[in-house]
Amino acid sequence: MSAYFVTSCGTGRGKTHLCELLISEWLFQGLTIEVLKPIISGFEKDSVSGSDAGRLLAATGRDVNSRNVDHVSPWRYAAPLSPDMAAAREGRSVPVDDVIAYCRRIINSSGADVVLIEGVGGTMVPIDGNRTIRDLIAALSVPTILVVGSYLGSLSHALTAYESLIQKGIEIDRIVVNEMADSNIPLSETRDALSRFVHNIPVVITPLSPSVQ
Question: Is residue 43 over pLDDT 50?
């Protein structure tokens, strides 16, 4: 069994799109897949099928129903803000220890060939008063796939996220330069530039995402 955590240098970099591509590739290889996006902010009850949880379920061929959404994304918040801020607007908080325990249980008991976990926002987005997505990744001890962009400033954003993960001792499986509507620099140029600064980590590119997630 393998497990991966998909994170990003910031919001709107195409994490969900990349997850869909990975799921399609693994299904083609005959692998079984468990998907999680344990925390969602900006969740709209009236458009579940278009949510990240809905898209992940659809990619794996599962029904987008309340039971499956509860399984994939147990902690959902309405405001499109960092999880700690979104939860606070509802008089709640993100129970990070419970999130960690839940993800660990799925990783250890799912029986799937691959467990794919998608984060929320960027690597350093706060999820409670003193912890970020980076802390969640470190607690799960699984390799991460870092999704970055190709625009003016993207190299700094990507390398900052890279350094933050390395400082925490998190294994980076690969860095993905994902093409988005704001990609105004050739992806190959960004890939080649990043490759000079990361050490023995593959840097790959993906084509234009159909939506921003």
Answer: yes
Asked if 133 and 164 count as a contact pair (C-beta separation under 8 A), the reply is no
190 phi and psi angles, rounded to 5 deg:
-65, -45
Model-level pTM? 0.93
The C-alpha angle 196, 23, 15, rounded to 5 degrees, equals 50
Q: What are phi and psi of 45, to 5 degrees?
A: -65, -25
Residue 35 contacts residue 19 (beta carbons within 8 Å): yes
Catalytic residues: 37
* Rounded Cα distance, 171 and 152, in Å: 27
| Cα–Cα distance, 82 to 42 (Å, whole number) | 9
By DSSP bridging, strand 172-178 and strand 144-148 are: parallel
Contacting residues for 119 by C-beta, under 8 A, at least 6 apart = 5, 6, 7, 8, 15, 37, 39, 133, 136, 137
Neighbouring CB atoms inside 10 A of 205's CB total 16
How far apart CA 165 and CA 154 sit, in angstroms, is 17
In this predicted model, what pLDDT tens digit does every residue of 25-39 receive, in sequence order? 999 999 999 999 999
Within 29-82, residue ranges assigned H as helices are: 52-60, 66-72
Q: What is the mean pLDDT of residues 68-84?
A: 96
Residues 48, 49, 51, 53, CA torsion sign: positive
* Structure token digits, residue 179: 């093409």
